Amino acid sequence: MSEHYYTPRPSVEHDLHTIEETLRGRSFVFWTDAGVFSKKGVDYGSKLLVQTMELSKQAKVLDVGCGYGPIGLAAAVAAEQGSVTMVDINERAIELAKRNAERNRIANVRILQSDLLAEVMDQTFDAVLTNPPIRAGKETVHRVFEQAHHVLAPGGALWVVIQKKQGAPSAYAKLESLYSQVEEVERNKGYWIIKAVK
Known about the structure:
Layout: E1 17-23, E2 26-32, H1 44-52, E3 60-64, H2 70-78, E4 83-88, H3 91-103, E5 109-113, E6 125-130, H4 138-151, E7 152-163, H5 168-178, E8 181-188, E9 191-197
Parallel strand pairs: 3-4, 3-6, 4-5, 6-7
Antiparallel strand pairs: 1-2, 7-9, 8-9
Helix pairs in contact: 1-2, 4-5
């Protein structure tokens, strides 16, 4: 089996470089590398999630599967008086995310290596954001939804981006079994943005 970006320690040779992206009207420079998700540029689904997510300025936010950091760092700018915790299983992604927080002068973040939400299950968040690791399989994606429900404050929201062809309808059904209110807030180029309120 070939190695995927959700491997804890990618063995693929490094290919470190920077990319520039504009997210929510702010320009960012990101370090990226081989062995991480969407290394050539921020993927369309993540951009759509960043553009659609609604966060208060004081929000306490969790980004699950943060990769090199585009969603979490954009969320930290939006929740400028709050904080963002970013988690990923991939240690290479975590190192990149830390460098990218520093490079873009974003201080209201903490970045942790974690298998899904294992390292933050004792904490509470106002919002959870995820572009879930589809290639890790449906069971893993559904575990993200269950663990997010556990860490969300009452009334808090999970924001998910998922492609229709990669299981958006079954993800929606799973979310409806867990959350009090589920809605598809955006649909674009085959991607769904789903908001699930606890």
